[in-house]
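Shape is hard to put into words, and the shape of a protein is harder than most. The fold becomes a row of whole numbers, each drawn from a learned catalogue of backbone shapes. The outcome of that step, for a single protein, is printed below.
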Amino acid sequence: MSSELKPIKLYTAGTPNGYKASIFLEELKAAYPGFTYEFQALSFTTNEQKEPWFLKINPNGRIPAMSDPNRGDFNVFESAALILYLIQHYDKEYKLSFDPVNEPDAYSEALQWTFFIHGGIGPMQGQSNHFFRYAPEKIPYAIKRYNDETRRLYSVLESRLSNGREYLAGAGKGKFSFADVNGFPWCVRSSDSLR
């Protein structure tokens, strides 16, 4: 990777989605000398993610988001989209992914697990956490519903990683990839969210 690359600019905060972007950027940095990034932490307490300057980067006003100065300050938002973008443009040797042409099954598996986590575990665990910690009133049905669904989703992950598998995608024990990075911050926080 060329040492002439400009640093990617990440806008983030300390949430599972923010962590997965940071982790993946760190993995790229370790895998490819010359790849760099910088970050700007956003303050939720001041609603910085809703300010007009940030809404130009992410019209949904959520983190993470990034700007790529190597591609005309191209903006990317949504954590899974950000990771897939980084793979497409910066993981040219497939160190953190799979070659979609030569390893189509492993690539498809990684995408499936990424979307399973992005569309299932993230939203369900997020709702579980919200209703348990932040809702203005405790709604037992909502707490139970989101806790139960999050537990069910984790049982699917547990099943996948049983019988000697170490990673979500790839043959045999699998290979560390973007799918694992996508799930890790949620899994680390699972004990905080589930009652």
